[in-house]
Every structure is written in structure tokens, then in C-alpha cells.
Amino acid sequence: MNPVRILIADDHEIYRRGLRNLLETQANWEVAGEAITGRQAVEEAKRLSPDLIIMDISMPEMNGLEATRQICKIAPDTQVLILSIHENEQLVHEVLEAGARGYVLKSDAGRDLIAAVESLCQHKPFFTPKVSEMVLEGYLKGGSVSDNYKSPQNRLTAREREIVQLLGEGQTNKEVAESLNISVKTVETHRSHIMEKLNMHSLGDLIRYAVRNHLIQP
Amino acid sequence: MNPVRILIADDHEIYRRGLRNLLETQANWEVAGEAITGRQAVEEAKRLSPDLIIMDISMPEMNGLEATRQICKIAPDTQVLILSIHENEQLVHEVLEAGARGYVLKSDAGRDLIAAVESLCQHKPFFTPKVSEMVLEGYLKGGSVSDNYKSPQNRLTAREREIVQLLGEGQTNKEVAESLNISVKTVETHRSHIMEKLNMHSLGDLIRYAVRNHLIQP
DNA sequence: GTCCGCTCTCAGGTATTTCCCTATGCTCTC
DNA sequence: GAGAGCATAGGGAAATACCTGAGAGCGGAC
User: Which residues contact B164 (CB under 8 A, 6 or more apart)?
Assistant: First the structure.
């Protein structure tokens, strides 16, 4: 039987160590790689085609939510397990919408992570008890999750959200352009589209928007 | 030479694993015990008399700040190193007041933790670069930290705080100048002073600072 | 299959804003 | 009265905003 190949995406080195250490206690599991940013996670997912990704939400450059969206699109066979400190209903629905199949709170991870990984490997979703209630509620309300969830950032495209995050992290247009390997002009275009869509008129508005919508940490 | 005996206090099992794993790479260091709550940390500090405690801030039952206060009172020989995700000036000064001798951001921990532990073992304080500037300024101003740091934004002058707030609320330099009936040039000067004082390089940084320090609402 | 709409990409040009350095009063302290 | 800190501001260089325009790719509609 082939080993289960796992990619770890978390910006804290200590936490990655802890995860690796825990996962390696399991026979037949293999940590195939590590990623520090969402962008790296996407790249490594492409390169390594892991069976499963353990994904933190808050990461620099690109957050885990956005990374999950992209990975589930380009590599639908890869299972994504979200590890988050946020016990936030909105966020749970967002990550499910993005394509993740599991959500474990970091405070429960020591107890539940192994079970969660096992579950996802058998293509069954997994949620820590606190989370599963929220999820259930979402479905019971009728309609799909997406019907219930119309957050304003859905109006932004993936690329636009990405740019909002980088700007929010303090990068200038020029730095964003370098980070994404695109022209400054392109960044300017995106930026003006974003401003227009959200009806904002200054970078300050944009950044507060990003903080409110958990695209960045204050 | 006796080994350095370390107590780990953090409520996340994965994180404790990571810490233990990292610390055990060092010869002559020994993880004497673990605590999951602040209360446990106090008890274990009494029972084990470790040389050093690595202390998370957010823990259930009793937070790391309160635990630090108690431990520094009952076991003044034990060094406390704070490990926190919060880049918040107020908090830094509170933990120093409480008796901690080091403050490392979790995002920097992988790089700085070993150095921090070494430093504290030689009874030298240690702070990650981002943090050390805040601290340094506090001491350079003379008097105790608490005198100067009733609130972190004391480092900025009244006028500067006013400007940070207006910028944070989404006003442009020009609008701020109109609001305050001063020249745009003056606003620019204030702004660059603020940036310099806080060691920031973009409006994004500034706004996140303002949100963290409750100068504005996100 | 083709067309339409959306997205991402980029360019050029001008107006505007910001950045960086310097400088002048003013007040308070030592 | 010398110096430190603060609020004020100017000049020139750099960056950004704001417009128009446009090609390439992609997915859904018909």
C-alpha cells in the first residue's frame, strides 16, 4: 500500500515541527513537503500532488482560504484539511465553499488531527464537534451553503483578493507587482477595479475592509 | 555543567510538540515539563523550579500574563520567555511589567527561539527585532516602562495620533490637511515622522497599527 | 462551433500624491 | 541661552492615480 503523502502549510516553523512530529508517529504516513505561505502551498500542491494538505488559514502573502480555492480547482483529488484557531461560523462556510473537506480547531488538533486525516483519506469529511454543529446548521437551513453565504468579498475575483491581501500586508504597488511577477500597471488596474467594486476611495478603506473580512491580521 | 531545565506552557498540543522537538535539538537542554493552562504553569513552576519557562499568552483558565506575574513573585530565579502571536505594544509592556525577560513573536520563533533561550540563560533579556524597538524606546525615555507606557500610543505626539486616526479612517493626506486646516506638506511631515517612529514603511502598516492599538475600528 | 462576457494582463500620458531632505519658528527644560 | 522636541512647510524626485485602449485566454450561452 502506498503511503499517504501529506503537505503541511503553516507559516509558524514551530507549529510545522509539531505537525510533522505528530504525523510521523503514524506508520505509512509521509510528510511530502512544507509550505510557509498560501502561494507556496499552491506551488507545492502542483509539484508534489500530495494526497492531503493540512492548511492553516492565516498565512502571509496568500491566506489558506484562497490557497484552498486554487488547489481544489487545479488538483481536485487532493484533500484539504483546514487547521484554524478561529471558531467562526462564517469562516467555516467559506472554507467549505472553497473546497476543503475538513476543519479542525488548533485547540483540538492534538486530539482530533489523526482522526481527521484518516477520515479524509477515506474521502469522508471531518469536523471537530464544535465545528460540525455549525456546518449542520448551514445545511439544515435549506439551500446550498453558497446561497446562505453572500459575503461581499465574493464580489472580488481571486486575483483581486490576493492583491488586497498583499496591499493590506503593507506592500506597495511596486512590491506587489514584484511578488506576483506582473507589471505595476496591472496592479494599478486591479487596484482601481477593487476600489470601484467596493466603493472605496482610499487605501485606508481597503485595508480596514481586509481586516474586517479576515484577509489579513491587524 | 547542569542541564538547562525548561518548562513549556502552551495550550496547543501540536505547538508543545514543536517546541519540545526544537529544544531537544540542543545538547544540555532538557524539557522538564509541560503545562496547558496558566494555573498549571504556576503549579509546575513551583514543583519543578525550572531554569526557564516558555510561556504562551493565550491559555485557558489563567492567561500567560497573570501566570508570569505570579511566577516571578514566587520564583524570582526562574526566567520567563513570552511567546505570543500578538505584535501589540501595550501587551509587550504589560508582560515586561509582569516580570518576563523576553518576548518572541510566534512568527519569528523558529528563527529566534534558540537564541532567546540562550540569552535568558545568561540573564540577558531578549526580544525579537520588531519588539525590541518598542522596548528600547520605553527605557531610553527614562523612568520606568510603566511611566511612559500607560498606553502605547504615547510614543506618538497628540498631533501625530490625530493624524494616524484620520488616515486610518480613510482620509487622504489632502483631506487630513483640510480637516486640520494645515498644509498638505505638514501632514506629509507628520506622516513620515510617524512611519519612522514606528518603523513602518507603508500606509498599510500604519493602519494595521492603528487597528491593533484601537485608534480606529476596522 | 461561434460568440459574448469576464478576467487578467499591459501600455501611454497627464494629473496628483507621496517621499525624502531641509528648514524655520515656537515652547519648554536644564 | 542652548538644546531638545514639536508643528509647520517648501522643493525636487519618485510613485501613484486616473483615464483610455487593447490583446489573450477561458467558460458559458445559443
Answer: B153, B156, B194, B206, B209, B210, B215
Element (H, E) at B79: strand B79-84
Q: Per mean pLDDT, which range of A86-100, B65-79, B181-195 is the poorest?
A: A86-100
Q: Which of A14, A16, A19 faces B19 most closely, judged by CB atoms?
A: A14
Angstroms from A196 CA to nearest CA on chain B: 15
Kindly state the average pLDDT of the residues A193-211: 86
User: How many whole angstroms separate alpha carbon B81 and alpha carbon B57?
Assistant: 10
A17: which 3 cell numbers? 515541527
Is there contact between A175 and strand C, defined as CB under 7 Å from any strand atom?
Answer: no
What is the average per-residue pLDDT within A176-205? 88
Nearest C-alpha in A relative to B165: A204
Nucleotide nearest to A173 in CA–C1' terms: D16
Mean pLDDT estimate for chain B: 84
Model confidence over B129-162: pLDDT tens digits?
Answer: 777 665 555 443 433 333 333 334 347 887 888 8
How far is the C-alpha of B155 from the C-alpha of A120, rounded, in Å? Answer: 50
A5 strand C contact, CB < 7 Å: no
**Total beta-carbon pairs less than 8 A apart between chain A and chain B:** 108
Where are the alpha helices (H) located in B49-183, listed in sequence order?
64-74, 89-98, 106-121, 129-140, 145-148, 158-168, 173-180
Q: How many CB atoms lie within 10 A of CB B199?
A: 11
Judge whether residue A192 contacts strand C, using its CB and a 7 Å cut-off.
no
CB-strand contact A89/C, under 7 Å: no
Chain B residues in contact with A104 (beta carbon < 8 A): none
pLDDT in tens, B183-195: 999 999 999 988 8
Confidence of residue A98 (pLDDT cuts 50, 70, 90): confident
Would the pTM of this model clear 0.90, i.e. be above it? no
B54 CA from D21 C1′ (Å): 59
Residues 6 or more apart from A170 whose CB is under 8 A from it?
B200, B201, B202, B204, B205, B208
Q: How many helical (H) and strand (E) elements, i.e. helices and strands, does chain B have? A: 11, 6
